[in-house]
């Protein structure tokens, strides 16, 4: 069976392509062994998707679910109730480009469901990935070994009301502050809190899956998940992979080792952990290089030497239980012969 080899390309890149550029890039990526373009945006171009199909490549779109970073957090500015509240009772601070959106507001969730339905109806995409499908955490910074433990959120009044309604648990009325309520929940009912967080995410994914497949039954669905040990992934992000897997075709852990200051052995640890939960639905997203991060105003970690990229690819692609990967980013494959490395390894396995 052919492996799925994706190239994630930011919309800011492909939105500038004309027909000749697109065809040249598609040809080059195909020569590297890539067979699908992966991206996410709130609008697409059918001309580029058509050209992609002409080259026998697939187009996987997607959206950001619980983050509005592409719009500079405009939704949170307009609706401050969506601003996550940490366990210390304070609004979550913006980190680099990330803030997050509290996922318990059904009105907001409905806007994302509606947007995804509109996109899948309007554009001839082969697949659709859910991104930022989690409770707030800027994991690229907060999962680094020297970072303090991520804070739990959100403890806004609406979310606390939802928690009580779903769990039938009553928070003591004599707790004077938000931080005191958070401490009471985390100290006495942590498991209920984690289950509640996971239920919110799973419910949204199930609604998205049902809606999109009613529009396009053969649409491949995927979701990007965090590179965390399973208990932490559930407690911080609200991602319970066993519960989520039935609703999607791909579970894609974003194992960006340089960004989180890890070596490539960590990639296998996370990938193996995910595989133990979802089997061959595992589609790891590998970091190709770090240089683009600085160009975008973010810290993507130390440079990744070409030999390290080659070692990472060899270890991943020669694993018989893994049916593919996504290169993050696809444009980095054009740097320093990294696409040629990918091509050579694919030809040798």
What does this structure look like?
The chain is of the alpha/beta class and 349 residues long. The protein has a single domain, classed as Glycosidases (TIM Barrel, Alpha-Beta Barrel), CATH 3.20.20. The protein contains 15 helices and 8 strands. The chain has an 8-stranded parallel beta barrel with strand order 1-2-3-4-5-6-7-8, surrounded by 4 helices. Strand 2 (36-38), helix 3 (46-54) and strand 3 (58-64) form a beta-alpha-beta unit. Helix 2 (19-32) crosses helix 3 and helix 5 packs parallel to helix 9 (190-215). The chain is globular. The model has no long low-confidence stretch (mean pLDDT 97).
CATH superfamily: Glycosidases
> In what range is the share of β-strand residues?
5-15%
Helix and strand content put the structural class at alpha/beta
Give the N-terminus to C-terminus distance in angstroms.
12 Å
What would you report as the Rg, rounded to the nearest angstrom? 20 Å
User: Which architecture would the CATH scheme give at its second level?
Assistant: Alpha-Beta Barrel
Question: Per CATH, what is the topology?
Answer: TIM Barrel
CATH class: Alpha Beta
**Low-confidence regions:** none
Compressed to H and E, one letter per element, the order equals EHHEHEHHEHHHHEHHEHEHHEH
Q: What is the 3D shape?
A: globular
User: Count the strands?
Assistant: 8
Please give the share of residues in helix. Answer: 40-55%
Number of helices: 15
């Amino acid at each position: 069976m052919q492996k799925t080899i994706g190239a994630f390309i930011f919309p800011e890149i492909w939105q500038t392509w004309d027909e000749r550029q697109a065809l040249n890039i598609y040809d080059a990526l195909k020569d590297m062994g890539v067979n699908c373009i992966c991206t996410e945006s709130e609008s697409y171009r059918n001309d580029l998707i058509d050209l992609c199909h002409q080259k026998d490549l697939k187009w996987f779109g997607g959206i950001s679910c619980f983050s509005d970073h592409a719009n500079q957090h405009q939704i949170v500015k307009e609706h401050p109730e969506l601003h996550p509240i940490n366990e210390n009772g304070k609004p979550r601070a913006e980190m680099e480009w990330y803030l997050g959106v509290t996922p318990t507001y059904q009105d907001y969730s409905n806007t994302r469901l509606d947007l995804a339905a509109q996109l899948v109806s309007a554009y001839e995409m082969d697949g659709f990935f859910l991104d930022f499908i989690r409770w707030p955490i800027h994991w690229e910074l907060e999962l680094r070994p020297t970072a303090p433990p991520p804070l739990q959120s959100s403890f806004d009044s609406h979310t606390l009301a939802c928690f009580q309604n779903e769990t039938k648990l009553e928070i003591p009325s004599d707790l004077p502050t938000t931080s005191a309520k958070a401490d009471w929940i985390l100290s006495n009912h942590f498991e209920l809190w984690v289950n509640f967080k996971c239920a919110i995410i799973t419910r949204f994914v199930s609604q998205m899956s049902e809606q999109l497949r009613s529009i396009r039954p053969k649409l491949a669905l995927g979701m990007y998940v965090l590179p965390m040990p399973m208990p932490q992934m559930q407690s911080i992000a609200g991602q319970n992979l066993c519960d989520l897997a039935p609703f999607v075709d791909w579970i894609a852990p974003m194992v960006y080792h340089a960004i989180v200051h890890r070596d490539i052995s960590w990639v296998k640890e996370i990938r193996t952990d995910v595989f133990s939960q979802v089997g061959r639905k595992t589609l790891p997203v590998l970091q190709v290089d770090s240089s683009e991060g600085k160009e975008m105003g973010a810290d993507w970690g130390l440079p990744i030497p070409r030999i390290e990229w080659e070692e990472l690819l060899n270890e991943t692609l020669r694993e018989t239980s893994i049916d593919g990967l996504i290169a993050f980013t696809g444009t980095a494959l054009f740097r320093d012969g990294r696409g040629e490395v990918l091509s050579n390894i694919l030809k040798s396995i």
